[in-house]
Design a protein that fits this description.
Blueprint: H1 6-9, H2 29-37, H3 45-48, E1 59-64, H4 72-85, E2 90-95, H5 102-105, H6 115-119, H7 125-128, E3 130-133, E4 136-140, H8 144-148, H9 153-169, E5 172-177, H10 183-191, E6 194-199, H11 203-219, E7 226-233, H12 236-254, E8 258-265, H13 268-276, H14 280-283, H15 288-300, H16 317-327
Helix pairs in contact: 4-15, 9-16, 10-16, 11-12
This protein binds adenosine-5'-diphosphate and magnesium ion.
């Protein structure tokens, strides 16, 4: 089942030193890759994460939508990189069981070690973490996603122990989910500190996003922190209008306050970046969409110094997240 050699092969030629241009100053791609390719380093990633004391527990965000194709995966990837630019240490969990494709956006071959191996106890979480950038790791979910959302009691201890090391050393866990109302998506959304709800201005996408929010509101008794992003907008006015209507409907009919986190313009550069299999923030750091993403990131995760000024749900940390996930909070068993 597990083939250690595949790990090295997870980096495709596209992810080459020349091909990667970092938005962060001084990124050295060879040092970036070193942690993944040398076998002696394979158990290192977590230990390499800057080990300074951190006051805040890790924050968990689930990126969800009603309709597919609204830009969740692109947002999850680029928000992660934008959080990174803001000095956060970010772990992105690719939890879209059907269309797991974060790896494709980075030009990686299908990862050999996934969350499934960790859950089965075959590999450590360290081994499943792919370091893609300074302060940024990817956990390929694979078949483990379903299992994580459906944890048996006997696996809980093992997993909580594995994940608790993340809690100490990373700041943010972002979860890219499948579209719609699958049980695992609801479980992730209800367990996370905050939900990042993505829609486009299309009436179908808005209606489906509202449908998801309705279920989340009911299952959580309205205790849910929701940040709305309107993607692929023509202009800011269109986004404001969608945001305003959505907020009003959510407040009036669901009694849920939705925080409007902003918009990302429809921008051909997103498509171009996908075609190049490089994240937008790396491929086109100055594009309109990239600038939009950074602004959204600054609203969702303000600088530590201004944190207290902003409305934010208190982080329950990773243990709280896993506890809620394993208890299937709000899912009736
Ligand atoms: N802001 C944008 N402007 C233009 N195209 C976009 C934008 N965001 C996403 N896309 C395109 O939409 C498609 C779906 O994006 P993706 O992130 O895979 O959505 P999801 O994960 O919600 O299914 C991709 O082809 C992507 O290039
Ligand atoms: Mg997706």
């Amino acid at each position: 089942m597990t083939s250690p050699w595949l790990r090295e092969k997870a980096i495709s030629p596209i992810f080459s030193p020349r091909g990667v241009k970092s938005v962060a100053e001084g990124l050295n791609i060879s040092s970036l890759l070193r942690g993944r390719t040398a076998s002696s380093d394979q158990a290192q990633p977590l230990r390499q994460i800057v080990g300074d004391e951190k006051g805040q527990p890790l924050r968990t965000f689930a990126v969800v939508s009603g309709k597919g194709g609204v830009g969740k995966t692109n947002l999850a990837v680029n928000l992660s990189l934008a959080f990174c630019e803001r000095g956060q240490r970010v772990v992105l969990l690719d939890a879209d069981l059907g269309l797991a494709n974060v790896d494709i956006l980075f030009g990686l071959l299908p990862p050999a070690v996934t969350l499934a191996h960790v859950i089965e106890g075959e590999r450590t979480l360290d081994e499943a973490l792919l370091k893609l950038h300074e302060g940024f790791w990817l956990i390929p979910g694979g078949a483990g996603v379903q299992e994580l959302a459906d944890l048996e009691e006997r696996r809980q201890g093992l997993l909580i122990e594995e994940f608790s090391r993340l809690d100490e050393r990373a700041d943010v866990l972002l979860i890219d989910t499948a579209a719609g109302l699958h049980a695992s998506v609801l479980a992730f959304a209800l367990a996370a500190d905050s939900v990042i709800l993505v829609t486009t201005p299309e009436p179908t996408a808005i209606r489906d996003a509202y449908g998801v929010l309705k279920v989340l509101a009911r299952r959580s008794n309205g205790r849910i922190d929701v940040r709305l992003i309107v993607n692929m907008v023509r202009d800011e006015a269109e986004a404001q209008e969608v945001g305003r209507r959505f907020q009003m409907a959510a407040a009036q009919f669901l009694n849920v306050p939705v925080i409007f986190a902003g918009h990302v313009s429809r921008d051909d550069r997103v498509h171009d970046a996908v075609a190049r299999q490089r994240p937008l923030l790396w491929a086109f750091p100055d594009s309109k969409a990239a600038r939009n993403v950074r602004l959204v990131a600054s609203r969702i995760l303000p600088a530590p110094s201004s944190e207290e000024e902003l409305v934010a749900a208190p982080s329950r940390g990773l243990k709280g997240f896993l506890f809620r996930l394993s208890r299937r909070v709000g899912l009736g068993g």
